[in-house]
Amino acid sequence: MRLLAKLLTSLLIVLVVALCTFLTVLHTSYGLPMVQRVVSTLTPYQLNASALEYNILSPFNIAFDDPELLQDNRGKSVAYLSFTISPLDSLTGQLVLKSLVIRGATIDDTLPEWVPSTLSVKHIALDDLAYDSDGLSFSQADVQLSNWQNSEEKWGTWNGKFQFSAPHISLQGQTLSNLLLDSEKRDDIWEVWGLSFNSIFGNITGSATLDANNHWTVHQLGVSDARIEPSEALSTLSSQWQAFSQHYSMDIRRLDLLDVSAEMPTLSIDHLNLSAQSMTVKNGELTWANSNVPSLLSFNANLLRYDTWVLTDALGEFSLSPDLLRVNAFSSKINDEGFISFAGDISKARVQLQTLVVNGFDLTLQAPLLTSLNTAWSALDDVQIASLSVRHTNITVPDVNFPLQLIGINLRGNRLSLREKQRSGMWQGDLTVSMKAASVNRISVSAPHASMSVSDGVWQLDTLSLSFNQGQLNATAKVDLANPSRPWEMKAQGLSIPTTLYQQWFDVNLPLSGEHDVYAAFSGLAASNDSFAYSLTGTLNATPHRVLFSRSPGTTLSQDILNVFMEAERAQDAVALPLVMGDIAITADRGRIHITPTTIEDDNEKTELSGEWDLVTRDGELSNKTMKSNTLEID
């Protein structure tokens, strides 16, 4: 045993002396030839280098300038190679390097054969790195990564920090410049602490986390100074995005766009600044967060164009969830003419606005747009506006059957409820309406004005004033909306009212023209058609002036009058002839209507018209007495 101990001690001394001698020689000019001889003796490779760098104070670190490793006169060279062995970690038989620095290397999709299969490196620095393939190429790149080890993966695996920078990189046809990546991989989680690069689509910055379920959590994504237009690169990027989004889902916590402009066939954006929070991308579709954590969106832009709509100086701040759009503020010029501003809540079934300001618009509502607006309005259950202001706005509806033109509209409303439980009307609030002029189905109205309010469920038309070319109409009305029976009353008084108004506005078969003075006062119930018929009560008195009656050739005056009440079609060759009519007096008492006899005459005939109807039983009699009495039974 003593002999064996002496032999082991002697062997250890020999090894220590040999190691010290080897390390000492490395520190001399004979170090490089000695290493070359060791490599060629112990491996099938030949090592060439211009210089060897070694410091006895760092005994486990060695470096080579311009090293080249050859096998059968074939091999690869780099500008610099340095490595530091970790002897304690390598005692298990696995080669472990504390650090590895390579400069000026060109890599491909596989590791060189001479790399030991059990090699692991705690820290790798690759400077001036180059790579070229069909989908990815770069040069002059700097890479640092931690805890790398050789594996079946083509470039090995790592678990730790990964940092990458390159002046230029080509990724699947997209050219990126000034790329910087700071990231860390921890088991199945990849943390991207920071990413930035420049592209033809702008400057990009961001940070994100990729988990084991192929789900990205984007903590921040910024795009600045972007100018986007149709191009092959944009089409390629769109295809790449579709392929990417099919494999990955994404939560975007914050998105910032700074000075972004785009010109597309149906969309134009000029100098857009946008900030968005809490969005989700799944299968390529963008959705907003749930109602518990709503998405936030704010933006401003010099110009936004979609199809034929142009918004300038647009500003908006929104809170979005799947069922609710909360508009904290929105304002914009539209089509470079009018201004709109509003704030409030919008959902599929309800609109509740705190403010709505419309100013200076000149709107032409064509049939398709009018139909779309009516459809959208009908889909709403409730519409409320706390403060409404409309000024200097014109509206034109070029409908052949009922053309409408409103000029210089001014509206002022407070606490308005315009639709409740899918019923349109004014259910709450105060509203004042005035205009410079209007043309309603070819009847001109000057300076119309109306003021109405709803208080404690009672709708009240405080005043309605309509000025015509020759006359004036004033009216008031009241309806108790809180009462299930809907009791109502109205009063109207006018001078020289155009008689064509009834046919043009209310589609009443009354082929008369001229003017008339009128006084009307009625009341009743409006809960249903039956309650209206049972309750209608009031009087109407009218004095016609300059009356023209559309007459059919070859008929008598009495027959033409009866044809009016029979709603017979007027002959195409009808002629407007003058009539002289006496005062008209109509009374209604609980649905029973009575026409006081009134005289009607032309140059050849004089007749007396009277009648009675019962709206409840729908029975009535109209008497038209001339030289020979004619009676028409109405059922």
Automatic annotation (TrEMBL):
Residues 419-541 form the AsmA domain. It comes from the Bacteria. InterPro entries: AsmA, AsmA-related. PANTHER family: DUF748 DOMAIN-CONTAINING PROTEIN. This is AsmA family protein. It comes from Enterovibrio norvegicus. The lineage of its organism: Bacteria, Pseudomonadati, Pseudomonadota, Gammaproteobacteria, Vibrionales.
